[in-house]
Amino acid sequence: MPVYKAPVADTRFFLEKVLNLPAYAHLPVFANVAGDTLEAILTEGARLCEEVLFPLNKSGDDEGCTRHADGSVTTPAGFKAAFQTYREGGWMAMNAPEAYGGMDMPHILGTALEEYRMAANQAFSMYPGLTMGAVAAILATGSEEQKSLYVPRMISGEWAGTMNLTEPHCGTDLGLIRTRAEPQADGSYAISGTKIFISGGDQDLTENIIHLVLAKTPGAPESSKGISLFIVPKFLVHADGALGERNAVSCGSIEHKMGIRANATCVLNYDGATGYLVGEENKGLAGMFVMMNAARLGVGAQGLSQGEVAYQNGVAYALDRRQGRALTGPAEPEQKADPIFVHPDVRRMLMEAKVLTEGLRALCLWGSLQADLAHGADTEEARTAADDLLGLLTPVIKAYCTDMGYRIATDMQQVFGGHGYIEEHGMSQYVRDARITMIYEGTNGVQAMDLVGRKLASKGGRAVQAFFAMAAAEIAAAKGDEALADVATRLEKSLGDMQAATMWLMQNAMANPENAGAGATAYLHITGAVVTGLMWLKMARAAQTELAAGAGDQRFLAAKLVSARFFAERILPETGAHRRKLETGAATLMALTAEDFATA
Amino acid sequence: MPVYKAPVADTRFFLEKVLNLPAYAHLPVFANVAGDTLEAILTEGARLCEEVLFPLNKSGDDEGCTRHADGSVTTPAGFKAAFQTYREGGWMAMNAPEAYGGMDMPHILGTALEEYRMAANQAFSMYPGLTMGAVAAILATGSEEQKSLYVPRMISGEWAGTMNLTEPHCGTDLGLIRTRAEPQADGSYAISGTKIFISGGDQDLTENIIHLVLAKTPGAPESSKGISLFIVPKFLVHADGALGERNAVSCGSIEHKMGIRANATCVLNYDGATGYLVGEENKGLAGMFVMMNAARLGVGAQGLSQGEVAYQNGVAYALDRRQGRALTGPAEPEQKADPIFVHPDVRRMLMEAKVLTEGLRALCLWGSLQADLAHGADTEEARTAADDLLGLLTPVIKAYCTDMGYRIATDMQQVFGGHGYIEEHGMSQYVRDARITMIYEGTNGVQAMDLVGRKLASKGGRAVQAFFAMAAAEIAAAKGDEALADVATRLEKSLGDMQAATMWLMQNAMANPENAGAGATAYLHITGAVVTGLMWLKMARAAQTELAAGAGDQRFLAAKLVSARFFAERILPETGAHRRKLETGAATLMALTAEDFATA
Fold first, then answer.
1. pLDDT truncated to tens, each residue of chain B (600 aa)?
2. What whole-number distance in Å separates Cα of residue A101 and Cα of residue B165?
3. CA atoms within 13 A on the CB side of A30
4. How far apart are CA B389 and CA B459, in angstroms?
5. What are the chain B neighbours of A428 within 8 Å (beta carbons)?
6. In A200, A368, A445, B444, which residue has its Cα 20 to 30 A from A190's Cα atom?
7. What is d(CA B423, CA B410) in angstroms, rounded to the nearest whole number?
8. Helix H or strand E encompassing B195
9. Contact state of B431 with A435 under an 8 Å Cβ cutoff
């Protein structure tokens, strides 16, 4: 039986002991998590994930979604009741503004819960997740009338939302979209075209679905500067919110996918459907990107989440399954074999999973703190610093956490041997579900290009220079502490790799932009390891402080120090290899032509 | 539509220009591939794979196998006819001895074809593949009567074979098996027990199935020293080969797996089934390992194969799909967007796939050459040297080729973006199918332990020292050639990492064997990169010689030089990171207890 327990104690350690969230209580953005509220919400959220969502994770994957002849879609058994429970708990209102019925909680709490929800049931949690994305887009660019009409009903879970960007011939390059929006006499638009890969494009969980659709108005520029955003409800909506007639949008088919099978990924056909412009004409992409950046942080947490649930099951199996004997002699001589936990190569995979999941959790939370501070800090300087850091971290969190989540899930499946390959234990599902996180909301290669092509150079490289200074200061402070010195020294070496790689890019990308492209993924992975290493240094220091004070769970704190050392010893060396790769540039990489790739 | 074309030209380049196979023509082991035979067989085999096996790859995955109420199993549509074609082509007789109706071809040819077959249809090719494994086990330890009765009918494809090792509670640790073999008055045994994960455990392709089963006789030692091997036919066999009554072995269920879905993975229940001892009592495991070592080389080629077919589809998609513009300005201004082939990060994935697949192909073929020379070389010295090298290379080929095959398949899926995640294009299947190769025939962790725990130290480290001398000589010879010097220098650096890692293991594993276990996977990956790098140096040198002579396909040869450089620049740096990890030893890795892994 697969297991999952939300890691509340670890989340709280980072929020309370490392970030010292209580110290931010004076800022309005954190007002709603003051006192015991944080703990109460985390604990209650954990319970929901463990008891309601996780039990449907494997059965949902086994059953998948069903599209009926009339185009309607049914979600797997139990999803409707679970969604009802989810709604009633008010979980969708968590991060929405109070003005529209939300609870106005900070991003950082949303991220903590996002990990739990996604670990418990990624396919399920995408239904409310995409709805929140649609809400964010409406809040960012919609009219007051649109906000009042749609947002309260969406955050109550009465209606859902979807994001419609991709078309058969275009995904990353949205300038190519062909969906048309013809202005109508009443001020609405007639939307026609085909959108694909629409998560939750149809379902039986909500009364209505509010599709947010990118389309082009007549005469709009050909590029991404000619894209407008529209609201297209599944059922038309009267001014009082009552549902009207069925709109001309229908699910043509659902995709047969590698994973997240319980989420209906639809082809949506728009046949002159009634739509309403959101924000200004031709400015649709900008509004969409406000939402997308927040979503990218969330996808990072999803990558982590699949690593976490896989890790917990890997540990359980390694302690239960007996094969062979410890290299140092039988660990449990009274048994016929020792648990495979005793084998160093199994332990290596478990330790890597442990230090990566805990490190990535810290990274996701730290990134979300910047999102909160970027608008909620009390000085302009602090808001700008947080915004700079957030911009730099967003592509790193999205891509590094998802690449690592897939790596962890694959390793944990390996711990199970042949039993990991059959679907029975659920390990295959974690790998299959994790795989999408490296692709959607911008592939990880797109994230890497965003990092080296946009974020690094932005404002004269201010963000990365500030990060270097911050990391160097943390390292310098830690080097004097015997318990932290080794970790600090190893992190310093990796920081050196990042600085050298940055310098190399600055010196070589001007001459040939392909040098930046050729090194983008390597640079992102260097950065990911360094920022996660910095999280470990912060965690080690906090643990050391607590230990010295004799406070807290001594075993937990001592393990943090060991784990920090393991991360430094076993993950940080990867930065050196990435740096060496990056410094070879684009020449050899781009030397072959299409003909050279043909199998002769 | 998925594409696959067997890379015959690349195989031939390595066999003929790099290994200079014609120079071995005087050895009887290569007698049957003299003249044009090699080319003819490769070409004919390629045609079969492209035209018969590959068209059933995706449909077989979609449909899977069906177990009926009576326990019988049906393979997907088209498999029966394809198997008939496969049989009639004589492909199963390729590597079997002439004395039993085989063609006695060298291993190296078998490996070349194994890659094609597995790339075209892994699930299908496992049916004949496991049969050949069973044949190898019978040939290694069976009586003359058993060989004459079973082998000719198995290599003709009239009957199939399976390997029955795993039980629900044991896989790697076969000493724990519980299946019993009770001696009967007529000299046969009554076999009772449950075997799981039996590939091709039942099917509708052949008239009979010869199960090779590990079991324990009464009073046998508890450890792996008490295991005997039995032949248990699905239908009992008369002395003249005619089929008798149904034996008491049945398929209890088929597994629902992540991949290789068209291969029936069965739970087999033995209820006092009639079995016949193969070889000596309690010596079953030794015979099985003769077969297993050959199988491990084959699994390496399987890992490569999934990388190769994924690579070919990745290239095709990258040249077809248009998104965005080249960083250096529009490559095809008359089109609305450039093919994604122009993007450096896409090219990076394609180049890594190209140099890994070509390098791994060379490695698999070079390893198989050692298998041929180990018994077929003309001096005792040469046979011993080949056998040493084969022993060292076997775990490396199995684990490195499969880890890299999965990495390539995952990267090629990434090239497809969202279109890689849906099943339509087949990319998901290559990842899912590749995944098993890291697990079966001994997990890759088991291979790593075999390498550091057994192969490295064997005969005073003779094999690895001989490898160092051979690699150093190749590097020294290449350094003088301007076209090869950079590759040679980079390889020398990685060879240095391997030598240092070897030294570290020798100095630290004696004191604590967990230091060997903790570094095993890192060491295997260093070795994998170095031996594949050596293959690239050999290929580059051969290409350079041909180019200088103005012979051969100049474009193909020039690409080999670029690819060698890319491997040196972009893959070899990984050895440094692995070495640094390995040198941190087991202390931190083994420091935490089971309690520390509990989610608090």
1. 899 999 999 999 999 999 999 999 999 999 999 889 999 999 999 999 999 999 999 999 999 999 999 999 999 999 999 999 999 999 999 989 999 999 999 999 999 999 999 999 999 999 999 999 999 999 999 999 999 999 999 999 999 999 999 999 999 999 999 999 999 999 999 999 999 999 999 999 999 999 999 999 999 998 889 999 999 999 999 999 999 999 999 999 999 999 999 999 999 999 999 999 999 999 999 878 878 888 999 999 999 999 999 999 999 999 999 999 999 999 999 999 999 999 999 999 999 999 999 999 999 999 999 999 999 999 999 999 999 999 999 999 999 999 999 999 999 999 999 999 999 999 999 999 999 999 999 999 999 999 999 999 999 999 999 999 999 999 999 999 999 999 999 999 999 999 999 999 999 998 899 999 999 999 999 999 999 999 999 999 999 999 999 988 999 999 999 999 999 999 999 999 999 999 999 999 999 999 999 864
2. 61
3. 25
4. 12
5. 257-258
6. A200
7. 14
8. strand B189-199
9. yes
d(CA A455, CA A530): 17
- Say whether A320 sits in a helix, a strand or coil: helix
Are β-strands A159-164 and A208-215 bridged in parallel, bridged antiparallel, or unpaired?
parallel
Interface test with A, best of B58, B327, B574 (most A CBs within 10 A): B327
Chain A touched by B344 (CB under 8 Å): yes
**Partner A contacted by B555 (CB < 8 A):** yes
Q: Which residue's structure tokens are 């067997």?
A: B6
Of B10, B323, B347, the CB nearest to A173: B323
User: H helices within A142-192, ranges in order?
Assistant: 144-155
**Amino acid sitting at position B165:** L
The shortest C-alpha distance from B186 to chain A (Å) reads 34
Coil, helix or strand for A51?
helix
**Amino acid making up residue A330:** P
Q: What are phi and psi of B106, to 5 degrees?
A: -70, 160
Which residue intervals of A416-481 are DSSP H helices? Answer: 418-421, 427-437, 444-450, 458-479
pTM, 2 dp: 0.98
Distance CA A495, CA A489 (A): 10
- What chain B residue is nearest to A579 in terms of C-alpha separation? B573
Return all residues near B448 (Cβ < 8 A) that are at least 6 apart. A345, B395, B399, B520, B521, B523, B524
| SS3 at position B450 | helix
Which residue type is seen at B295? A
Please give the full DSSP string across A104-126, using - where no structure is assigned.
Answer: ---HHHHHHHHHHHHHHHHHHHH
Whether the CB-CB separation of A264 and A74 falls below 8 Å is answered with: no
Distance CA B292, CA B294 (A): 5
**Alpha helix stretches (DSSP H) within B164-273:** none
Taking CA–CA distances from B427, the nearest residue in chain A reads A258
HSE-up of residue A477 (Cα within 13 Å, Cβ side): 12
Say which of A114, A308, A441, A492 is annotated catalytic: A441
Question: What gap in Å lies between CA B316 and CA B353, rounded to an integer?
Answer: 13
Write out the DSSP string of A166-216: -BTTBSS-GGG---EEEE-TTS-EEEEEEEEEEETSS-SSSSEEEEEEEEB
* DSSP collapsed to 3 states, B257-319: ECCCCCCCEEEEEEEEEEEEEECCCCEHHHHHHHHHHHHHHHHHHHHHHHHHHHHHHHHHHHH
CB nearest to B521's CB, from A9, A345, A439: A345
Q: Are A422 and B264 in contact (CB under 8 A)?
A: no
Contact check, Cβ <8 Å, B319/A580: no
Structural domain boundaries in chain B = 443-590
- Residue (of A270, A154, A267) closest to A213 by Cα position: A270
Would you tell me which residues 259-278 of chain B have a C-beta closer than 8 angstroms to some C-beta of chain A?
A: 259, 265
Provide the ipTM: 0.98
Nearest to A588 among B172, B553, B562 (CB): B562
Residue B255 known to be catalytic: no
